Amino acid sequence: MTTRRPQAPGSGTSIAPAPRTGRGPGARLLDLAITGAAARAAGPGGIRFTERQLYYETCRVLSPAATLLTRIPRTPAPPLRLRTFTRALDARGRKTVEGLLPPVPSAWPRPAATPDSSEPDVYAYGLPRLLVCQDRSIARMLLSNHVHLEAACPVLSAPDALPLEPRLVAALERAEGATVHVLHDASPEGIELPAQIRAALGRVPGLRVASIGLVPRHAAALRLPTGRGPAPAPPLGPWPPALRPQEATWLARGRFAQVAAVSPPRLVRTVLQLTRGPRPPRNSMWTELRGLRTTGFLTWPAS
What we know:
With 303 residues, the protein is α/β, with parallel strands linked by helices. It folds into 2 domains: 25-96, no CATH class; 129-276, Dna Topoisomerase Vi A Subunit, Chain: A, domain 2, CATH 3.40.1360. It has helices at 25-42, 51-62, 65-68, 82-92, 136-144, 147-150, 158-161, 166-174, 188-201, 216-221, 245-252, 264-276, 285-292; strands at residues 129-133, 155-157, 179-183, 208-211, 227-228, 255-256. Strands 2-1-3-4 form a 4-stranded parallel β-sheet, sandwiched between helices. The chain has a two-stranded antiparallel ribbon with strand order 5-6. The radius of gyration is 26 Å and the shape is globular.
């Protein structure tokens, strides 16, 4: 007994049923977007990135118009729900995304109370700069990309490093003019973090606590996707003087923007530039040659 294949209405030709892949066109499109987002997040230098950074990069791939109108300050809503992205990433498999860091543990161990025996004088030197991140995963991302080595600046996370170890504070004081850079979200908790660190350090002579962002105007200038939560409670202290009234209103509405929304290559470049300072101007070949003539006999080949 033979079976007949289904025919299209109004035609005499038979149509073979299409193979079922179990994934609709929307899932396949999202998978392609994740692939493109991972390539953009890694950049030409092979940067490693977190899952949340990959999510925001996928949002930029799905809404290319948001990256074209860069001169119009705006904080758009993300075009993709985080839940949908997480399900798609689980179906794809996290290990298939090159450059994606594994999930960060719930807590990092605090630095050891005593230095390593091979470096007994590790705290005897001055520490000119220190970077404290509000987000534990961002601190781990910067460490994974060796930002602490390029900037000669230790990178800590606020949940695990505060209060700072007393000998670390002493090393900052010994540097005479050290700076503690604070990298935080554009949220009430993030805006208040520099003041909390400043209060925890006390009155250390010459020590400066500087916020390197984010603030709401940074999020608008970069057109970062933002979220909206419940209206926050009143701040623990007064808002910083540099915060504009419209930014305080923006925060009071429950809006927030995360550092993870910044493109990973841009985040690494910005952190390096702000922590190690601007690079000295490069001299031309002629000025270098003129300088060699007066530097001494060890730098000029003898005839």
